[in-house]
Amino acid sequence: MNYRRLGRSGLKVSEISLGSWLTFGKSVCEQKATDIIHQAYEVGINFFDSANVYERGQAEIVMSRALKTFPRESYVMTTKAFWPMGDGPNDRGLSRKHIMDQVHSSLKRMELDYVDIFYCHRYDVETPLEETLRAIDDLIRQGKILYVGVSEWTAAQIQEAFTIADRYLLDRIIVNQPQYNLFHRDIEEEILPMCERIGVSQVVWSPLAQGVLTGKYRRGEIPKGSRAYQSGESSWMKKVINDIFNRKIDLLDDIAKEYDITLAQLALAWILRQPNVASTLVGASEPSQIIENAQASNVVLNFETLQKIEEITAI
Ligand code: NDP
């Protein structure tokens, strides 16, 4: 496993990290979740992602319980806040009140003294940015949060928050968590160049497009137990499967075969070609998936291959 520095901080995270959305506390039982998390740690993953809203705190509980086996200093644990956690007017957003309440609740659930990274899960148009950043800065000074990140903010929002934090506070935003994969490349236009310039790293979610980029759904097959199977008719994976999609997957798979790697490993290595991406944040429903995904950290795709992939994605 290789490690990269997050933004301009001193923190190093594994190129492959493990998330808990839709799996831990939900589709994967606790024993298997523990096996997956332990497997991840064994292959060198030191970066674990959660959020208050994932199964209303259950994902945080399962993840932190499994990680208790390991020394606290050896792993990086994250959480997030923004989405509603109750019906009250202050049970959502990025107000000082909600952030303080949610960070304390997350720490209590996880039985931790501090969380390494706290993410603003979305931008809150109703709360002044200064209020949000001051609240986070206070939590950093209290030692309850070590670093700060944002998720799915626009380039302008990240730039503004970075400037305020840089001018008035001790700590900067060091990480952005956007969606990024072979089929979803929005961040390339504005966010990547801007973040590269100011020194904010990306930790990207759904790097395998929720499993689509493993090839398991090609030609409309929906394996029993897979995420698309469990999501039923609402599954977006089913909606993207068409002839063009199948052709792209086949061509990408041919490239993977040339490298003697799997399609999932190709998809992750393609993301890691970006120096501004510090980590690809995968999910897993089996320990074997984590072993396979972690090996992508050692795959380097050459220039000709990257050109070929560009042509395929443009079909
Ligand atoms: P992925 O794109 O990695 O999809 C994960 C799913 O794909 C797994 O649960 C598994 O599903 C399947 N899979 C993974 N590896 C393999 C493999 N090698 N072979 C076969 N199938 C595989 O990521 P997620 O969509 O799960 O997102 C990852 C994390 O990102 C989340 O856990 C969360 O922490 C974070 N996230 C953040 C968001 C944000 O707004 N900031 C939004 C969404 C996610 P199965 O086996 O069940 O088919």
UniProtKB/TrEMBL annotation:
Keywords: NADP, Oxidoreductase
Pfam families: Aldo_ket_red
Gene3D superfamilies: NADP-dependent oxidoreductase domain
InterPro entries documented for this protein: K_chnl_volt-dep_bsu_KCNAB-rel (IPR005399), NAD(P)_OxRdtase_dom_sf (IPR036812), NADP_OxRdtase_dom (IPR023210)
Domain NADP-dependent oxidoreductase: 15-312
Family recorded in the similarity comment: Belongs to the shaker potassium channel beta subunit family.
Name of this protein: Aldo/keto reductase family protein
Organism per entry: Metabacillus fastidiosus
Lineage of origin: Bacteria, Bacillati, Bacillota, Bacilli, Bacillales
